[in-house]
Design goal:
The chain has helices spanning 14-30, 52-56, 63-72, 153-161, 179-194, 238-247, 250-253, 263-271; strands at residues 2-7, 35-37, 78-86, 92-100, 103-109, 135-137, 140-144, 166-171, 197-202, 213-215, 221-224, 230-235. By secondary structure, it is of the alpha/beta class. It has a single domain (2-271), classed as Carbon-nitrogen hydrolase (Nitrilase/N-carbamoyl-D-aminoacid amidohydrolase, 4-Layer Sandwich), CATH 3.60.110.
Length: 272
């Protein structure tokens, strides 16, 4: 599988971001990619307005997704990104959408909200309550997570136990003391401890670090982007996954059962 990582600085205007998304889709397809991954929260970004996720949120049949779906029609390229969608409760869901040939083939509502480092994502965002499904892309099984999810190893392990060979991570990783190191360590750890590929794509710009990367099942970063807009490509090699799982059989050697979403948490989320 050939994957394209498209990092960019999200603007305040969804129309500009839709144009960027469509342009990157065309470039990724021209580059032979099977999968394009874009950052988290690409409808709108304004570091001076913490409520922009509420003001800019659109339904999945709104104008942003309509434009993206139309651009994907007739293409074999799969695209993943995250947008904010009204929840009907005064907040929004942070939804990771997978698009292929004019249709949304899956959606995942972010489980772990970024209530850390003086931020409080849950003020405007309602958490999801379901483990993301495993998808098949170009013959490989793919799981997804969103940004802050990467700090919770249970989700990555659950995805891999469910069959994932590749985990996709759109993000908007905020700058800060040590934060770039956190990003690299966490992405690498999730790949190495699960002997899977991690495809992590970050937004760049004033607030966020960019630093998109692909890490292979033995913890090797096979491609990296810097802090500016970029489209980079990487090959996901099934033989590398098989080799890693042969020489480092942590999945076969594990002593713990499959992680489950806590029932009390799910019940509280549903009631929120």
């Amino acid at each position: 599988m050939k994957v394209a990582l498209g990092q960019f600085a999200v603007s305040k205007d969804w129309k500009d971001n839709a144009e960027t998304c469509v342009r990157l889709m065309k470039q990724a397809e021209a580059g032979g990619a099977d999968l394009l991954v874009l950052p988290e929260g690409i409808l709108a970004r304004d570091i001076t307005d913490p409520d922009i996720v509420l003001k800019s949120a659109q339904s999945l049949d709104g104008p942003f997704m309509t434009q993206v779906l139309e651009a994907s029609r007739g293409s074999a390229l799969t695209m993943m990104t995250c947008i904010h969608v009204p929840s009907g409760s005064g907040r929004v869901f942070n939804v990771l959408v997978t698009v292929r040939n004019g249709a949304i083939v899956s959606q995942y509502r972010k489980l772990h909200l970024y209530d850390a480092f003086s931020a409080k994502e849950s003020t405007n965002v309602q958490p999801g309550s379901e483990i993301p499904q495993i998808l098949e892309i170009a013959g490989l099984k793919v799981g997804v997570m969103t940004c802050y999810d990467v700090r919770f190893p249970e989700l990555a392990r659950r995805l891999v136990v469910d069959g994932a060979e590749v985990i996709i991570l759109p993000a908007a990783w905020v700058r800060g003391l040590g934060k770039e190191a956190h990003w690299e360590v966490l992405v690498t750890a999730r790949a190495l401890e699960n002997t899977c590929y991690m495809v992590a794509v970050g937004e760049c710009g004033e607030r966020n670090i960019g630093a998109s990367m692909v890490v292979d099942p033995l913890g090797v970063a096979v491609v990296r982007a810097g802090e500016t807009p970029a489209l980079v490509f990487a090959d996901i090699d099934p033989a590398r996954i098989a080799h890693a799982r042969s020489v480092l059989p942590v999945l076969a050697n594990r002593r713990f059962a499959r992680p489950e979403l806590a029932l009390d948490d799910a019940a509280q989320i549903e009631a929120a």
